[in-house]
Design goal:
The protein has one domain. 22% of the residues lie in helices and 21% in strands. The chain has five helices and six strands. It is globular. The chain is α+β, with helices and mostly antiparallel strands.
C-alpha cells in the first residue's frame, strides 16, 4: 500500500479460510438481488433503523446487518476498521482467516455501491455495505491486498 493514499480510502473485509476456500478467493454476495423490499412487521423484534418503502439497496444493506444474504440480498460487508475485519476473519479469534483490503476509489470506478447507513445495527463494526452491479463478483482490481490472520494473533490481548 503506497504512501500517496490515505487510510480512509481503504475498506477491510475479513473472511475465514474455510469460506475463502469455498468461494475460491472470490468476494461475492450470497444472494441475487441488489434491491430488497422490506415486509411490514418482519424482523420487527430487531431495531435496525429505517427501511425505505419499496425496493431499495439501503434495505438490502440493512438486512445484511442482520445476516449475510438475508432475503437473497447480494450485499457484501466491509468495515472501515482493520481490527473489526480481523475479528470477522478469525470468527473472534477461534479460526484462521484472511483480511482483504479494498480501495474505495477503484470500487466506485466499477460502480460498486458503498452504503454507510445511519443507525446501523452494530455501530462498532463501522460497516460499509458493498453492492456490486448485477450481483457479480467484486472486481479483482479493487482488491489491493490480502493477508492471513491467525487465531493465535490475539493471544497477547486474551492474556491481559
Amino acid at each position: 500500500m503506497g504512501n500517496d493514499k490515505s487510510k480512509n480510502n481503504y475498506l477491510y473485509r475479513g473472511v475465514s479460510k474455510e469460506l475463502d476456500n469455498k468461494l475460491g478467493g472470490k468476494i461475492i454476495g450470497r444472494g441475487n438481488k441488489e434491491e430488497l423490499t422490506m415486509l411490514i412487521g418482519k424482523y420487527s423484534d430487531i431495531h435496525i433503523g429505517n427501511f425505505i418503502i419499496g425496493a431499495d439497496k439501503k434495505n438490502t444493506a440493512r438486512l445484511q446487518h442482520i445476516q449475510n444474504g438475508l432475503e437473497n440480498g447480494c450485499a457484501i460487508s466491509s468495515s472501515k476498521s482493520l481490527k473489526v475485519a480481523k475479528e470477522f476473519a478469525t470468527n473472534h479469534y477461534s479460526t484462521d482467516g484472511y483480511v482483504y483490503i479494498f480501495d474505495r476509489e477503484i470500487l466506485e470506478k466499477y460502480s460498486v455501491e458503498l452504503i454507510d447507513l445511519d443507525e446501523p445495527l452494530h455501530p462498532y463494526e463501522v460497516e460499509i455495505t458493498l453492492i456490486v452491479p448485477n450481483c457479480k463478483e467484486l472486481p479483482k482490481e479493487a482488491i489491493i491486498d490480502k493477508f492471513e490472520v491467525l487465531k493465535s494473533d490475539n493471544k497477547m490481548i486474551m492474556e491481559k
